[in-house]
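User: Methionine aminopeptidase, Mesotoga infera:
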Amino acid sequence: MKWPKRFSGFWGMFDMVRLKSPEEIGKIEVAAKIVAEVLFTLSEYASVGATAYDMERVATELIAKKGGTPAFKGYGGYPYTLCVSVNEEVIHGFPLKEKVFEAGDIVSIDCGVVKDGYYGDAAKTFVVGEFLNEKDRLLLLKTEESLYEGIRMAMAGNRLGDIGNAVQTCVESAGFSVIRDYVGHGVGTSLHEDPQVANYGRKGSGMLLRVGMTLAIEPMVASGHYDVELLEDGWTAVTADGSRAAHFEHDIAIMEDGPRILSRL
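Assistant: Predicted structure for Methionine aminopeptidase:
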């Protein structure tokens, strides 16, 4: 789950980055792998006639079975386990029964889990059936590719701007736009920790990356312009021009030998 970068008051609650021990990284990984299992399981529900609520129900049951707790539910007043965003919905879409999937829909699922006091947070975007056009296929391909380009730069001695620049370069080279109003974040004993991890930036700028930092890197990409609007529910962010969007996210730890992805099976 992401919070707008412009909500400076929220981010102001975090005034430092706390480096994690190997033991703490292991605990984050336990929570993150539950999230990864949820996303893997939900892939089969990205099908014609299924609903976002089907995903919500399955995710809630699976998280409980694994001994975790939904990290999003109740966080800042958010009422659900998942965020399920469809087509022009960028993030924070409600997993509603009336959100019935149709062929060609682009469905982004964002999930968070807390277990033993440590958080995992990841997201993945699926297509329902076949892509309607080549642009949609390329949108998902390049958004996921940009995630791994960002992760590749998450090494001790680099800077936050190197991550953002890698994501932005990959996305914009394909003719798409990086969402600016929402950013990634640190993760650990809170769902959102310092630092903010923007998906755009200048090489060599920003905070120095150090061993023990744990980050949620998460490109949110629009096929049109990056401006977004909030729906009346106060949560769902949609592209202002109605263009489709995609969202991929991993939790990573910066280790001596480079970035380690914590949120994959």
